[in-house]
Design goal:
With about 300 residues, this protein is α+β, with helices and mostly antiparallel strands.
Length: about 300
């Protein structure tokens, strides 16, 4: 494990990021910790907490996932994907909104769901699951509003200035939606062991996480047809995150959470994206090797 940790830290350094990682074998509990208890900004990774809350409420009969929701264009949360990027009125079920929220990280869909279950319910769910350092303090629209306010009159162009980025509240774990890598792998483990919800709803959560369309972060470390990766990304200026579960054909299941930050303000940094997959692969390989030795 010591060699794997050194390789992970070297990979983060080579990519020009500060990285925090926690990985765990879901069945044996073996783990690899590279800053797993460090507080991190979750960004869109927190949509996973909302998804689990939604299914917890459905399992308890507090809502029906086929319930239809009106999605008028006025007042939608901004974003580059899904309903957030669309211009016309729509009507969708709660579960289809959840699909858009997870598969393409649709901010508008997420806030419609958050409006249905409530911020307090999301925090109650994470507390029930023992995620003591995980907290949602605002909606995704409210989080983006703080970015606009903190950027000032320069708008999005100002986010290319490192001095502006340093004042963004959305990048301060003390003032935004937050967690730790260890809390996130604990949540993933609970979902994959059917401890977070009933098996029926656990299956639905796992399915929808497996439909995420982004292959450039966690999944890039596992380019194999017989290895399945289910995850959720999160992005803000200088932040690139992903949490997910890697499943091997021999039954091995590994929860991995990787959170990174870079000093570079460019929106496109392929090395910073790819190192999430690289670090995750190093961690999972180490856990698998440990399991083989133990066996």
């Amino acid at each position: 494990m010591t060699d794997a940790l050194a390789r992970i830290h070297a990979a983060f350094a080579d990519a020009g990021v500060t990285g925090r990682l926690h990985a765990v074998d879901i069945d044996s509990g073996a783990q690899l910790d590279a800053g797993g208890d460090h507080p991190v900004c979750t960004a869109s990774v927190h949509k996973l907490c909302l998804l689990v809350t939604l299914h917890e409420h459905a399992a308890a009969g507090r809502l029906d996932l086929t319930e239809q929701v009106e999605c008028p264009p006025a007042g939608r949360t901004n974003g580059p994907t899904g309903l957030a990027a669309m211009r016309d009125a729509a009507r969708m079920s709660l579960r289809d909104l959840a699909f858009l929220m997870m598969a393409v990280s649709d901010n508008a869909a997420a806030d419609l769901l958050l409006g249905r279950v409530g911020l307090d319910a999301v925090n109650a769910t994470t507390a029930r699951l023992g995620l003591a350092r995980t907290l949602a303090v605002h909606s995704f629209g409210e989080m983006l509003a703080t970015v606009r306010e903190d950027a000032g009159p320069g708008g999005a162009r100002a986010l290319a200035d490192p001095r502006v980025v340093t004042r963004l509240r959305a990048l301060d774990p003390a003032r935004t939606n937050r967690s730790t890598p260890r809390d996130m792998t604990r949540l993933l483990g609970a979902v994959w062991r059917d401890e977070a919800c009933t098996p029926e709803h656990g299956d639905a959560i796992r399915r929808i996480m497996g439909l995420q369309v982004w292959p450039h972060r966690l999944a890039s470390g596992f380019p194999f047809d017989d290895v399945h990766v289910a995850g959720k990304t999160g992005s803000l200026p200088t932040l690139r995150n992903e949490v997910g579960v890697v499943e091997y054909p021999d039954g091995g299941r590994y929860a991995v959470a990787v959170f990174t930050r870079t000093a570079h303000t460019a929106a496109t940094l392929p090395a910073a994206d790819a190192v999430i997959g690289t670090a995750a692969r190093i961690a999972v390989d180490a856990l698998r090797a440990r399991g083989l030795r133990a066996g």
